[in-house]
Amino acid sequence: MGKNKNARINTLEAVINVLKAYEELFNGNLIKALYYIDKSLELEPDFHLALFLKGLY
Question: What's the superkingdom here (predicted)?
């Protein structure tokens, strides 16, 4: 149960980081957006939305 709970927490944190990246992108801060995308990919390496955003930059 502990590993499953930890995996869900990592996924939620990855989603939060992608949302922060969107926010920074719309505010015009590309460096912070890339930081949050990389942080998201550290938690979930196969997170397709983060990989897509990183590919756009």
Answer: Archaea
Question: H or E stretch including 37?
Answer: helix 30-43
Tally of domains in the chain: 1
Domain that residue 21 falls in: 2-56
pLDDT in tens, the chain (57 residues): 466 778 899 999 999 999 999 999 999 999 999 999 999 999 999 999 998 888 887
CA distance 18 to 5: 20
Q: What is the pTM of this model?
A: 0.85
